[in-house]
Amino acid sequence: MLYKEWRRPTERPSWQFYVYNWSNAQAILEHRASSASFQEIGPYQYEEVAEVVDVKYHQANGTLSYRKRTIFRPSGPHSTTTNGTESERIISVNFVALVASHLGHSMDYSVQRELSFMLHNFHQTVTVTRTIGQLLFTGYREPMMEPLRKLVCPTKRRSVACQDERLAYFRTFNVTRRASEVYSLDVGLKDRSKYGTVRSWGAAAVPAAHGEFHPCDGFADLTGEFFPSRIERDQAIAIVLPELCRRLTLEFDREQLVAGIMGFRYAVRLVRPFRSAQMSESSMRSCPDTSIRLGRYGILNTNECNGFPLYESDQAHVYSNESTSFSSDSDLLYYVLEPTTGTVLESNIGLTYHTFLRPNEHIALFQSVPELRIPLFRFARYYRLSELKAAKLRQLLHLLDVGHQIALAGCVAGLTIILLAVVYACWKAERPSKTNNDQYRIIGMQLSDERSKRLESERADEG
């Protein structure tokens, strides 16, 4: 049953996406306004439909190798959302041009000038008007991408610009239906402590500490699908989300009741992915060709794991932004785990992403632009155990509790029997013995009988 649920999950996380429309872009670029204005549009509600394919069991090491296919389906009518439609067009920064400028920063002057001419020849602008669907999932073909690949890919092999796919904030699974790279799941047959550990093929032989990691590293960690049983509240749990290019540390916060089940609520502490020194060209060239990096596959496409100028926003900055609306709980990062079985009762991962518009003196399009932080999108991924499975889990926990009580009662009964046996043995040892008295009595009776016989014999002789 667990295997079938893992292959084709019936409980699907729900996603809410928000995008930002740059309402005064022209005024900012012409230096007629002092502050940028961004309008949040959404939510666009989807459910995550995942399927595990190409499963193979490897008996030698007790692991399952597999690929994962993920698509997003609208949880309501596809064309409508709360505040708009997916086909609605918004103004955002031209991510293709921004990527060209970003990648060119570390290149030679001649390459940067070639990029500048390329942007001019393809009539690129700082901002573009796109539909929300194109920005999020379906992506779009940009004629400039092909010459850009030829120019930057010989040295920038890590970036999504070098992959032949549409450009979108999220990978275009809804268009291509591609599966992921190969992962390996440890089922705990060889070592129970490694149950649920997922490893990327090509992971570093000596992985970095959980506090930081290198973009070359793969991973060999829990991924949030399976957790160990008998969880201790004072022990932090480290997990990795390869789909989002993030490592997380779960730290116990408090107990929380979910669907009648007491669970441990863990606050999520994000581990920042890379330092700028790790993203240098010389550092990236040291990556082995066979290495499967953490960000090579994932739901999130254009992120910093792939060398793209897309960054996760600090939550403190997000909450201080008055132009965005947040509920009290929807944007918190947390997991609620049932400690006995390690079952995920509830989880929420809410992240906001932005980019930076920066002047570049060697690229004409960006020579006079202001330095500006531009919010792009945010999402909240929410999961909660269904009522049916919660009922089954409650029943299982009840049986475990009853079994524990029966075992405890058996232990008490056994100890009672042993105690009674000891008391009885002590009592019997201290009790006066009657065996000798009985023997004397019997002997005495025997002597009396013999004496009477002698008397009778003597009387007979006298007679």
From TrEMBL:
Keywords: Cell membrane, Glycoprotein, Membrane, Transmembrane, Transmembrane helix. Pfam families: CD36. One of its GO terms (cellular component) is cytoplasm. The chain crosses the membrane at residues 406-427. The keyword Cell membrane applies. It is found in: Cell membrane. InterPro entries: CD36_fam. GO terms for molecular function: scavenger receptor activity. PANTHER family: FI02050P-RELATED (PTHR11923:SF114), SCAVENGER RECEPTOR CLASS B TYPE-1 SR-B1 (PTHR11923). Belongs to the CD36 family. Plays an olfactory role that is not restricted to pheromone sensitivity. This is Scavenger receptor class B. It comes from Anopheles melas.
